[in-house]
Amino acid sequence: MANRPSFGTRRRGELFDSLLTLFLAEGFAHLTLDDIAARLRCSKGTLYTLAGSKEQLVHAVAVHFFRRATDDVEQEVARAGDARSRITAYLAAVGAALEVASDRFMTDLDAFAPARAVYEQNTSIAARRVSELIAEGVASHEFRDVHAAFAADLAAVMMVRIQQGIVRSTTGLDDAAAYRELAAILTSGIDA
After folding, report:
1. How many Cα neighbours within 13 Å face the side chain of 170?
2. Which of 30, 63, 99, 126 has the most CB atoms in a 10 Å sphere around its CB?
3. Which positions does the record tag as DNA-binding (predicted)?
4. Which residue ranges in the chain fall short of pLDDT 70?
């Protein structure tokens, strides 16, 4: 029984999941704490047990979103076989994680510096992970002898452009589609 989460821990997780579902669908900038409490059918006091202000709550939900997304992405990578499949699985899973986010959520995320910083940090982590996956593929001779750091930097530049909305504005691709295209181009270009 010691390994089971307490009711309070479970309830916190449920609240964060509900907040995330609400924010992903509708964004968050226009919502007040009263709106959020009414939508989640809880009290503002309950929300204050999660964070001390709306801004802190939004930040905590952004962290929750990216933690959950990272877990989902790594599960997909673990199921993949060769290096190409792992990179494709990684970038496709990142795209899938972002696919559930409405345009309004992405706009609000970009406009709110603490949440944008969480996205930027996760983009940086993702770029390092792509670098590791490329290096593994080069070491196993699945990819030609590319400079793994350069290939990863190339991916990182595109990941930042995706995160900043530049790819969306110049190509019309949403973040999820852009990650799928990046996976296709990256893995085809480094095949052995």
Report:
1. 8
2. 126
3. 32-51
4. 1-8, 146, 189-192
H-type helices in 27-53, by residue range? 33-40, 44-50
> Which amino acid type is present at position 131?
S
In this prediction, residue 160 carries a pLDDT of 81
- The pLDDT score that the predictor gives to residue 190 is 59
Residue for token pair 């992970």: 129
End-to-end CA distance of the chain, in Å? 51
Q: What's the confidence (pLDDT) of residue 192? A: 47
Q: Residue 89 contacts by C-beta under 8 Å, 6 or more apart in sequence? A: 76, 77, 79, 80
Q: Can you tell me the distance from the alpha carbon of 139 to that of 83, in angstroms, rounded to the nearest whole number?
A: 10
Q: What is the rounded CA–CA span in Å between residue 167 and residue 129?
A: 21
Predicted local distance difference test score (pLDDT) of residue 8:
66
